[in-house]
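Run log, item B.
One chain of 454 residues. Sequence copied directly from the ordering sheet:
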Amino acid sequence: MLSVKRIVNYFVVFVLIFSPVSLLFAQENSPYSRYGLGDLYPTQTIAARGLAGLTAAYSDGRTLNTDNPASYGDIRSYANGGSVTFDVGVSIDSRTLHSASPVLKYNSVNFIPSYILLGFPINKKHFGLVAGLKPMTRINYSIESFTRGVDSMHTIYQGSGGLNQAFIGLGKRWGGFSIGVNGGYLFGRKETTTKTSFVNDTVGYHDGNVSNTGNFGGLFANGGVQVNIKLNEKTDSLSKIKSTYGLTLGAAGMLKQNVNIYSNVLNETFYYNTDGATLPYDTVSYKSNPTSKAVLPASFNVGFMLTKQVTSYVYSDNKWMLGAELSAGNWGNDYLYDNQKDQVVNNWMLRAGGAITPDPFSNGFFTHTTYRLGFYTGKDYIDADGNGLKTTAVTLGAGFRVRTARFSNQSTVINTAMEIGKRGNNANNVTENFFKFSVGLSLSDIWFIKRKYE
């Protein structure tokens, strides 16, 4: 049985191991994260990322799908209790930045914890609950600018932070119709600094720094629906394996929401010591504003999934699935940060993907592995140069079943996903080639067992 103590141990190991490794690999420098709330971080679980990030109509009962809480109604339950699923994921993000003018190239590798999730059925009537913690955006950049004139000027723009969410969600299924909702707390930080140095042979200037730190937080809610339609069903006369073909339609989204910002703006002069560290010289001004807000845009995704489910005796699994979806966000119209607009536009993304398990009932390791493939393309919400920012990528993934739930009601699946793509094109001065490798561990075991004897 997967006890609460064991779950806590997994969480502690996750934090102790991955936190120092995250610092070790923290070389990320994404100049586009200077705008809006930073780069949008994929919120899908690792299994869905191998399918190009399909989540609107995705549900398989073995892995969690927090982007559409309607899927929680499919978390597996058993006659004498329910199955708790503990899911944790991490990613390695490798990027190569190319600048056309001036001609520059920069490589970075960053290690990022992706999510930590816990889900279980509340009862045997397709009513599930999921709680979790995951990042939504990342801010990490350092840009230098040189301006030549009577007094040459050297400027360094730096930023860090991001937005995260802690949430709890409920999902319920009635026959072929499911509905669900997530609610929780958004929190994070956006810290930007602009350091300016004048270079003059005869006149000495103090270096200047403007630092803006915003800590934000607020409640949020999103929801989703799924409709399952049985297309056909047949049973093999020899193996007695029943094949069920189905179509799932899904939609999920979030309305426009406000987040409180507690910001501080510091304007100061500084100097560099012999070690190159910055030390304050004099404070020019300091302003605190605890009442500003950030307006997060409305967003949605809608799609479909075709599936073939096979059932042998009491055990069921997906043989294959194939789907597509469209997602969009109203960033250009809705987004504000401290009552200010930014260089952002309405974004959209089209995704398509499929998965196949050669033989779900086989004892062979590779024959009961799930293989995934996907593709996505669209427009990013950041529009730094006014030319748009096209994003295209292909995805590959696999779900390795270390232990199946056929006989023991226990399941251990190692999900992997690779994304290879490009951000920007010839119309943009800065383009970004990226490679992401993600690993997720999904552990399922009996939750509560009803005792037959005392």
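Observations after the first pass:
- The longest strand covers residues 207-235.
- The chain is about 5% helix and 60% strand.
Flagged for discussion on Thursday.
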